[in-house]
Amino acid sequence: MYPDLYLPYPASLIKAVVYDIRDKSNVKKTREIELEGTYLSSRKIGSVLYILANKHLPYYAIGDSADDLTPRYRDSASSEGLVNIGFEAIRYFSGFVEPNYLIIAGVDLSAGEPVQVDAYLGAGDNVYVCQSNMYVAMTHYGADAVSREPRVSTQVYRFALKQGRTEINGMGKVLGTVLNQFSMDEYDGYFRLAATVGGDIPKNNIYILDEDLKVSGEITDIAPGETIYSARFMGNRGYLVTFRTVDPLFVIDLDPRSPKVLGALKIPGYSSYLHPYERDHLIGFGKDTVEVVDKDSRGNVVNVRAVELGLKVALFDVSDASAPVEKFSVRIGGRGSDSELLYNHKALLFDPERQLLAFPVEVRKEGADLFTYGELLFNGAYVYRIDPSRGFQLLGQISHWTDEDYLKAGFWGYCERNIQRIMFIKDTLYTLSLGMVKANDLHDLAQVGRLVIP
């Protein structure tokens, strides 16, 4: 943080730091960009970087100074220093006024020009970006105009991307809430969304919006009583996983005028992240589950629920859209086993050319019964070879933990050497944690080096 960036109230700052790494022996910091707010998302397209932030209005500062209520930023490439975005430059979304700011910054890192920053009254929830457009989805809590019953919708705002500059060029609205960026997609001039509409019996909808962001086609009431756990759009096909006690994988024809469900597969468990593999396969990452029936003292069924077990990785064959198949699957650990990949897709390493699949895991042994978490067995990364005809082959495990770390971790173990990211350069696999970088040979996973980070 710049020492003179004084804020009279608690606030969050986002910093983007640019380094010149052409000379590896003399890495140089060339630029810093700071935004006031909390990080929402970012994208880099070629040499252009876009950063999005949300900033909540500091209600307790109202009346002190107008400058305290407006967002501010700083760019070390500019001579302006700390810049306040004045009220006259802040825009608002028609029909959507929230006491927060959405801040969008864009900069062409190759041009050396100052960062371009725009502020809007409102806050973003999810972001989808393609080469020419950025879509920001915002959840809106309102009421039905007639019944006055609560109604949750998603407002969609489209921004044209122009070498670091953004220009709003479309607005749309659909019922329901969007799960994440993979529940949105632009294809052939249309924008597609998957949304869950809440209520006593939740339902799930697919919307296809035209160039004016008006609904041109939709599928409603998919899997009543369930909610969306993952979605993926791939060309003219869509894939949707909903869950309550079993995992239905839906295959969807995304014809812009008349979309329809082509097929479905129901299996135990759920996938919270879907990753495409070739044209006819998907990899699902999630949890295995078992269905439990609760009965009263007379033996009457009073509830049916799902109990999570270990991690589950599955390979789905979707070559026959009307009959998708779970071709292979592996289960990792017992109840309580987890992976950052289930909520952050950046934790996955997947290279189809090398048939390489790796991700961080926390593995627990089977508990004493269905409802008990077992003790911690392993924390690190699992490395697989994946083949569409043979499934998953475990090549090995890599950990940054020592025997002492396991002894000190306790039941809910955490260590600064939890692996967060995995990558490879040529024939070396690198695993990264806050406390270590480790290098392993890709052929046999033998350790070839490590760097402990103080």
Shape: globular
Instruction: Write down the Rg.
Output: 24 Å
The CATH topology annotation of the largest domain reads as Methylamine Dehydrogenase, Chain H
Helix content: under 10%
Please state the structural category.
mainly beta
By DSSP (H or I, 4+ residues per run), the number of helices equals: 1
Strand segment count: 34
Largest sheet: 5 strands, mixed
CATH class of the largest domain reads Mainly Beta
Strand order of the largest sheet: 3-4-8-9-7
Average the pLDDT over all residues and give the rounded result. Answer: 91
* CA-CA gap between termini: 21 Å
- CATH homologous superfamily grouping of the largest domain: YVTN repeat-like/Quinoprotein amine dehydrogenase
- How much of the sequence lies in strands comes to over 45%
Low-confidence stretches: 1-6
Count of the domains: 3
Under the CATH scheme, the architecture of the largest domain is 7 Propeller
